[in-house]
Amino acid sequence: MIKEIREPLIFEISESGKRASELPTLDVPARKDLLAGVPLRREIEDFPEVSETEITRHFTRLSQKNYCVDMGIYPLGSCTMKYNPKINERLAAHPAFVASHPLAPADLVQGSLEVLKKLEGCLCEIAGMDAFTLQPAAGAHGELTGMMLIRAALEARGDARKYVLIPDSAHGTNPSSAHICGYAVKEVKSNEKGTIDLLALEQEMTGEVAALMVTNPNTLGVFESDICRIAEIVHAKGGFVYMDGANMNALTGIVRPGDMGIDVMHINLHKTFSTPHGGGGPGSGPVGIMKELVPFLPVPLIAEKDGRYALDFDRPASIGRVRAYFGNFAVIVRALCYILTLGPKGIREIAEFAVLNANYIRKSLEGVYDLKYTTASMHECVFSDKIQKAFGVTNLDISKRLIDYGMHPPTMSFPLIVHGALMIEPTETESRRDLDMFIDAMKAIATEAKENPDILRSAPHVTYVSRLDEVAAAKFPILRWEKKA
Amino acid sequence: MSYISISDKDKKEMLARTGAASVDDLFCCIPEAVRFKKPLDLPAAKSELELVRAIGAVGGKNTYGGHLSFLGGGAYDHFIPTVVDYLSSRGEFVSPYTPYQPEVSQGTLQLVFEFQTLICQLTGLDIANDSLYDGSTGAAEGVLMAHRITNRNKVLLARSLHPQYREVVRTYIKNLGIEAVEIGFGPDGRLDPAELGRALDDKTAAVVYQSPNFFGVVEDVKALSDAAHGAKALSVAVVAEALSLALLESPGKLGADIVTGEAQSFGIPVSFGGPYLGFMACKKEFLRQMPGRITGQTVDKDGRRGFVLTLSTREQHIRRERATSNICTNQALCALRATIFMETLGKQGLREMAWQNAQKAAYAADKLGAVRGVKMKFAGPVFNEFVVEVPKPWASVDAALRGQGIVAGYGLAAEYPGIGDAAVVCVTELRTKDEVDRLARTLEEVLS
């Protein structure tokens, strides 16, 4: 494509009287007194008016300004940007599913209810949990739901408690979700291996602590090897262990959270189970729980009897609904399709190849980039810009330069415990050729950092726009188009 | 079927480079005792063809599609122009992550900037965010936002707010010391102003109402906003049928401070309840309290216009437990569908669609109201839904109509005890005059 093509905002090409859609003529008598007494708008001021040709070109051109997994490696750490199988898109759009109304009587939507029940069952098996709710719409929504379930269980015991413990390596949604659930957050420091410090945990874990929220593998891509001991410490004081399943891609078929003392967890279907990220959603964040928490699940539950499905609202201890209807159903269909396609062996291969690929990258780049924590990596590895800093180059510069090599950058500046982080998660679906291209680019960039740091600091050079002024964007916010006066 | 791209030969060589003796070796950090040593108890792997057959068979158990349906209640069956599916299926839109790297995400960022603009134009407010999960969580976020802005702990929730939205609000506020008081409705189906007046006080953070409400009745947004403002509370309008914004005066212009709701009507199929598209707009003085992602315009170092995610100091990845919301992943692809939809229908088309909805609903209300024994439950003005009351138990009428292949509406008795044999009926532009006539005729037969 031609780099200099500028795509205007749709409002800037709008011309009065143009249209891209028409409805059939109204087939009932038009009433003049429609909505009498209600203030109506004369028009939607400045709303766009364009032709279908213009719409198609506008969005096609916009699409070409995006990088995506369909184009190449997308090694964003903790985001699990794997390939999204195309058949799942087609089946999620099956007319029988897309046309079904969420308020339809259960008798008429048995197929949709079966999809929900089937996925619940598959997730229970893969995670080793006793039950799942599919209502949460994303990972953070799942965290909130999970923490509410814990709170409800503690309240049922007579004391909701005050605090939630969260390791300093955790994703920002963890403290935020705990907070909305009414808990104060206490941070638990990591040790020199990058894992939870058991002594610190034992000190912090008092009878006032409701739960520990742990990501495993954690955001360094390191497995919390002491997880069973961690769970014992928390359980001994009557607390619950919540696992953020964002990194479940490292574990499928290898180890099940339910078998290592986890009481509550969420899974991101848009990570581990291949549903596309859509440029930021929709996702789906099912929550798995152990038996004690079942009474508190959001309503409705789906009850099965003799192959027929019904909605169960009779759940007096339920935390209530966390979302209208049944969650992001079409995302759920895709995840079920993925599991059915892969089968038991394929599900295990997710973790096997995700971990192999990450370790292959790690071994290939060790020494080229600094690795703060040398503990064994699972599905991702976290380098930093420490070596390149000497040449006045940061992780931002390295990332932007990677764009020039035709690849998406890793996650930057996260986890917070690694300064100048470059968090790389290749996922299992990359080929060796793509991994090698990434490794070669990273090596070339490391050489450039020494020899020609300016080319990094001025990167990217091949995109429609160069580095954008984010400070100005926040200082003088322009958040919508407005007609020039 | 597998999506692995690594050959056996590559696998061996790659393992050798990592220094691991076997794949199992890569997992040495996982204690032996907890490792899962059996194959997972899941169905055997399927080929694409087997999958299509298996999922097709499950889908075939949905018989709803064979019915003539008048269901609404927060999920609306509207026409979707072909370009929406065509353009929104492009891999460049479907398969990127959140646009953290703006230089390679200008497509997503620009379209979201357009989405924010369109939502501002429709709601009559200054700023809009990139999306929320759906209308129900949008209502909950609206309540939390009003609580943060006013520092007050009581919200007044219209009983005519979607029952599931109300439940979600209650779930969200339960642990935050916020009290919800429900305000009933009058014989016109609108929020009862006298009851509102009695409940409003200096502890009230917001009046939260839906318009058109769950009964399809259009609220007096100006009066509700004036009342809220009289007590220095915020006016929070929830719009579950976004199409109504194309015809009714915008809530922002009528005084609403925050407008949040569900934009599923804009090019997103009903799809058994999701994914949908929550949206939120507000006055600019509340910008710093807005939840969710926001996209802003800026320039690159060569002076060219570009777009970036901005004002992220409100968000969880920076502010952690002090964030305005815990939301991270949102509904970007649904916002894309809605953007294509709104721009395709355009200024005339969107209004025309809304007008046809109102016309057809008015026609249907007349037709059904003329059936012996059937009454319109509420006298207030409606958009594309209305409540009918039938002279026999609704469950039996509903079942008899279903026997004739019609899903006539959503019975209200479970969520509104005491409302009688009433159901909310929705008529969109997709329902033809013949279909409405058939509903009226069949209802007459069923009742006689």
Q: What structural keywords apply?
A:
heterodimer; A: 485 residues; alpha/beta; Aspartate Aminotransferase, domain 2; Aspartate Aminotransferase, domain 1; 2 domains; three-stranded antiparallel beta sheet; 15 helices; B: 448 residues; 3 domains; seven-stranded mixed beta sheet; four-stranded antiparallel beta sheet; 36% helix; 15% strand
Could you characterize what this model shows?
The complex is a heterodimer of chains A (485) and B (448). Chain A has 485 residues and is α/β, with parallel strands linked by helices. Chain A has two domains: 87-341, Type I PLP-dependent aspartate aminotransferase-like (Major domain) (Aspartate Aminotransferase, domain 2, 3-Layer(aba) Sandwich); 345-471, Aspartate Aminotransferase, domain 1 (Alpha-Beta Complex). Chain A is 35% helix and 11% strand. Chain A has helices at 10-13, 52-63, 86-92, 95-98, 110-127, 139-157, 173-180, 198-204, 227-236, 329-365, 386-389, 395-404, 432-451, 453-457, 470-475, and strands spanning 131-133, 163-167, 184-188, 209-215, 240-245, 264-267, 287-289, 301-305, 308-312, 381-384, 411-412, 421-424. Chain A has a seven-stranded mixed β-sheet with strand order 1-7-6-5-4-2-3, with helices on both faces. In chain A, helix 9 links the parallel strand 4 (209-215) and strand 5. In chain A, helix 3 runs antiparallel to helix 10. The longest helix of chain A has 37 residues, at 329-365. Chain A starts with 9 loop residues before the first helix and ends in a 10-residue tail after the last helix. By secondary structure, chain B is of the alpha/beta class. Chain B folds into three domains: 8-50, no CATH class; 65-79 and 348-447, Aspartate Aminotransferase, domain 1 (Alpha-Beta Complex); 82-341, Aspartate Aminotransferase, domain 2, CATH 3.40.640. In chain B, 36% of the residues lie in helices and 15% in strands. Chain B is built from 13 helices and 15 strands. Chain B has helices at residues 8-18, 48-59, 82-88, 91-94, 106-123, 135-150, 163-173, 193-199, 221-230, 316-319, 332-369, 394-403, 433-447, and strands spanning 68-69, 127-128, 154-158, 179-183, 204-210, 234-239, 258-262, 278-282, 294-299, 305-310, 375-376, 385-389, 406-407, 410-411, 422-426. In chain B, the strands form four sheets. Chain B has a seven-stranded mixed β-sheet with strand order 2-8-7-6-5-3-4, with helices on both faces. In chain B, strands 11-12-15-14 form a four-stranded antiparallel β-sheet, covered by helices on one side. The longest helix of chain B has 38 residues, at 332-369. Chain B is globular. At the A-B interface, helix 2, helix 3, helix 4, helix 5 and helix 6 of A face helix 1, helix 2, helix 3, helix 4 and helix 5 of B.
